[in-house]
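User: Fold both of these, please.

Assistant: Here is the first one.
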Amino acid sequence: MSSFYVENFGCRATQADGAVIERELQQCGMTPAGAPGRAQVVVLNTCTVTAAADRDVRAAIRRIHRQNPRCRILVTGCYAQRAPHEIAAIPGVSAVIGNSHKAQVAQLASGRDPGGSLPKEAGARFATGLVQPTAADASPPLPGIYVGDIFAHTELAAAPVFEAGARTRPNLKVQDGCNHRCSFCVIPAVRGRSRSLPLAETLREVQALAEAGYREVVISGIDLGRWGRDLPGQNRFEDLLLAILEQTSLEKLRISSVEPMDWSDRLIALVATSNRIAQHAHVPLQSGSDRVLRQMHRKYRPWHYAERIRKIREAMPEAAIGADVMVGFPGETDLDFAETQALVEQLPFTYLHVFTYSARPGTPAAQMSGQVAAPLMRERNRILREIAARKKLAFMQSFLGRTIDALTLHTYEGGHTEALSDNYLKLRLPGRLEANRWVAAQVESADAAGLTGTLPTPES
């Protein structure tokens, strides 16, 4: 029986894809190895959103091949879809499988050559079995390259993802792909058109998690707010949320990132009034400059974005509100950045994910003039991170002396347990508490690492 190891790179969507691959490999009779050095087959499920993500994958291939030269390395995911020949040229790679053929990864990993049922590029051949040259000068088989038209891809499989080292708060991907064409983003080219997990399948997965005892489930997607628009009928994201509330026993539902134009009044009202949906809104911003947003091909303006955020805050006074912000987009001037900085200062964010622009081959932005110097990008990144840290600390300090509900996650060696509040605040509690348990804790202090709290002493 063959053993396998799956290593995921990048976002939650990639991790969700990796969970599906692991499930399918086990269904094929393969067993988890626990580490790449002990596996006969290693699947690298890649990201390509930045140049650094690509470098991480190449380094991992070389490291694994050096540590375990007899294993077969299969590379799949977004980087495999974008640059298969680049990956295939790296020693140790047995097959490159794009997102277009990710559903066949388990079939290929289990050593079955699908032949005519799975197109592969001319001149490449599938390497079956372990790479075992019979002589010192023998060459390993050429890697097979299985990459097709991602825009013809319509499949979407689901499997829950768990945070490393924890069995709480599973993440379920219910949407993939994107129909937007942001000028800086390579995702549509490597993940294809927007497609949704059907309602019945989503409800089945959520209910299975609830019956397994999980208290909170996070639903995610590449463009989550567009869920259902490719399905028959007039489905909208709000309809999915209502169905989960009405047809499953899940105690708490958390929504991952949703674009600003999809935070409708109906969605805001639903999240604000349901005690089973976490008070948490992650709303990508990217830039506070109208000129830069237009160059990015984003579908909203700064004033529209600000209006949505203020509506969310009005409806949910204590909600976590976060955003993605990019610095260093080509042509971003000091004035453009000052507008972003001012908007970030004005809006009631409780945290930010600040990213530095990375040129992606094939995107319009990569060909634009005015590429910003790296030192200036780093400085702008630092400024926004400092603002975000200040806002986050002020938000945390507003809960000092109060009692908040949180879900226990895991225990650290230092003897404290980490928990997460409904509004996305990390909470350190004394002692070793059972994971996946609701607790009411009194907040005693706040610092950059999060909140510290205590549990009430039982009355004697």
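And the second sequence with its predicted structure:
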Amino acid sequence: MMITIYHNPRCSKSRKTLEILRGAGAEPVIVEYLKNPPDATSIVHLATLLGVAVADLLRRNETEFRDATNLPPLDDDTALAAWIEEHPKVLQRPIVVNEEIQQAVIGRPPETVLQLLER
């Protein structure tokens, strides 16, 4: 099983999700997205795998989002994905992708990840 987690090691939900994955026998590819942000095309792809608009990937309580002066329209997935690429701190976390079945979940709550492992 090929699993990728977009992970922030400082986030308790992200750490718990990683723990659940490992406890289930999966050793995911870990992308520390604050160090290695996904590009805009990857962000659009993640939204597609999640079945949501790119705007649904935003952490709207983050100061970087709330204070943004250059935020593109929230209904413009392409422009918004490019903005998120430049401001990865606002990306929801953790995002977990099962590469084999091309499906993803946001690990909030962390147990949500189990549905990717049951397939």
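Residues 12-23 form the longest helix (12 residues).
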